[in-house]
Amino acid sequence: MSGGLLVAGTTSDAGKSVLTAGICRWLYRRGVKVAPFKAQNMSNNSVVVVGPDGRGGEIGRAQAMQAAACGIAPDIRFNPVLLKPGSDYSSQVVLLGEAIDTVTAGNYRSLRPRLAETAFATLAELRAEYDAVICEGAGSPAEINLRDGDFVNMGLARNAGLPAIVVGDIDRGGVFAALFGTVALLSPEDQALVNGFVINKFRGDLGLLRPGLDMITGATGRPVHGVLPFNADVQVDGEDSLAYGQLLGRPGAPRGTEWLRVAVIRLPRISNATDAEALASEPGVQVRLTIEPAEVADADLVVLPGSKATVSDLAWLRETGLADAIRVHAAAGKPLVGICGGFQMLAETINDEVESRRGVVPGLGLLPVEVTFGARKTLARSQGAAWGQVPVSGYEIHHGYVSGGAPEPMLRYADGTPEGAVVGAVCGTHWHGAFESDEFRRRFLTDAARQAGRAGFVVAPDTRFAAVRELALDTLGDLVEEHLDTDALWRLIESGPTPGLPFIPPGAPAAVSPTTGPPPAPAAVSPTAGPPQAPAAVVPTTSPQGGPGAAAPTTSAPGGQGADVR
User: In whole angstroms, what separates CA 518 from the centre of its chain?
Assistant: First the structure.
């Protein structure tokens, strides 16, 4: 077979990434040879994949997580196009793992045909190799200003003949309007591929939601394939900064008498904030993303994470007062670690003629190194040790390199080459993912607690980050099996779109002419017949000629969502 499915969403962060991972894990446990795919991802959370030829390349972290759900190694083909925003107006373009250009909204259009051709060809290649490919959309397929030339949502589904399902996040409110509106703003050809819905993050009594499920099915002629409950145990790699709240993870109780409080600076162009997730997996470690100087002052450990715009984000630190708060924290002898771009910000000077093109700028001056940006990006998987004998591994994605200074290194490569820097309680490294090495993470946290004066903090001796990740993926698979109509999903994956699905007006809006203005709105109500009668909850009310009316309420009880949101 060569099955496939597109998981689209009503919005960004509606649950596409986790639902795709859950479906992948469910299929993997059924013995299906399955792979994930996202034609184009816009994210600064990436991971290095080393191909059979030994060449390193980047893909979005979400696709690496989904590959793990499939029980396979990540592959650059799983995310052929990765856009890494460096500012509000430009992004670096990574094509099949390699950075090829920097684009703006204007010149992206000229590059898009090449990107689309690569994405379509890559998906066809994967479908020939795997039994099923589960594709994740981007944003919403109803972003009508982007439909022309789209190759990640309905453009991908149309090209490959894929059935699509739409997931909506009920925590945001208005989920039924979002589901209906998503379909109703698509062309008839696109609508024909949308085969149903999934509702994400529901809390409360499902019985109170049932009338709404029946109504949306009646109004669209498409079933709700299931309702996924909110589950705080689902902690997987975030696709981008939207996936993160203020508090990372759900920390367990401390093994000792004190907590260790960690503040991670939420930089405007934060890159690979996933580094802090390993810290958050430890009992007694509270990890908080923040932009508040007061929270930096109150923290035991401060993490300055990676950035896609090191010099610009360093200027932002100074403008917001966070740079001063970081210096005060370090002057007090409390621990501070910089990772990749964060490490570069701690340097004495940064010479950047590549990303920002601002030349030499002063760093925070907390580590005795100079950093220079090279035109060629370093992409590597790295192995080595810390403290002489503690094994550590990670990956590198950076243009900057240490061009001056000879400090004590934080790590050493397997061949003994020094990496990073340490001065007292301040340290930094270019390696992402180092905290996923369990023994290294424990030793680091133990030292950090000592430097912060948290004598009552005791690191857990048995936390295995790989097991934490695997448990999260299994939890996603369990949720799919228990709460979705998996028979219906399998039929779609195996047999393709359901024929004869009804069209929902108005469809894709016509383009507005600069001379004639927008087309007249269709009359929804006959001037002689009056308004339509409200339909019953489960009666289909759509046709190519008319839109749905309001569904009659069936209960006056409050909705089933809880007040607490993630």
Answer: 36
User: What's the pLDDT score for residue 540?
Assistant: 35
Between CA 436 and CA 23 the distance in angstroms is: 25
Q: Which DSSP helix (H) or strand (E) runs through 68? A: helix 61-69
- Total Cβ atoms within 10 A of residue 477: 21
Q: Rounded to an integer, what distance in angstroms lies between the CA atom of residue 398 and that of residue 420? A: 13
pLDDT exceeding 70 applies to what percent of the chain? 87
- Who's near 298: CB < 8 A, 6+ residues apart? 261, 263
Using an 8 Å Cβ cutoff, are 396 and 379 in contact? yes
Q: Is 432 a catalytic residue?
A: yes
Annotated catalytic residue within 329, 399, 430, 432? 432
Pairing of strands 164-169, 194-202: parallel
In DSSP notation, 408-477 reads BPSEEETTS-EESEEETTEEEES-BSGGGSHHHHHHHHHHHHHHHT-TT----S---HHHHHHHHHHHHH
Per-residue confidence (pLDDT) for residue 547, from 0 to 100: 41
> Using CA atoms, how far apart are residues 265 and 306, in angstroms rounded to an integer?
10
Q: Express each pLDDT in 107-161 by its tens digit.
A: 888 899 999 999 999 999 999 999 999 999 999 999 999 999 999 999 999 999 9
Residue of 24, 70, 135, 340 marked active site: 340
Note whether 97 and 55 are within 8 A (CB).
yes
**CB of 439 closer than 8 Å to CB of 282:** no
pTM, two decimal places: 0.83
What are the distances in angstroms from CA 412 to CA 56, 263, 324, 395? 20, 26, 30, 13
Residue 177: phi, psi to the nearest 5? -60, -40
Q: Are the C-beta atoms of residues 249 and 274 closer than 8 Å to each other?
A: no
Q: What is the pLDDT of residues 311-325, one digit of tens each?
A: 999 999 999 999 999
Closest-CA residue to 414 (of 452, 384, 388): 384
Is 398 labeled as catalytic in the residue annotation? no
Most confident range, picked from 42-51, 106-115, 352-361, 480-489: 480-489
Residues with Cβ within 8 Å of 113's Cβ and at least 6 positions away in sequence, in order, are 149
The pLDDT value given to residue 53: 77
Give the Cα separation of 410 and 426 in Å (integer). Answer: 10
Strands 418-419 and 411-413: antiparallel
How many whole angstroms separate alpha carbon 63 and alpha carbon 79? 7
Mean pLDDT taken over the chain:
87
Beta strands in 254-369 (DSSP E): 260-265, 270-271, 285-290, 301-304, 306-307, 336-339, 349-352, 359-362
Q: How many Cβ atoms are within 10 Å of 499's Cβ, its own excluded?
A: 6
pLDDT tens, residue by residue, 327-341: 999 999 999 999 999
Return the pLDDT at 14.
92
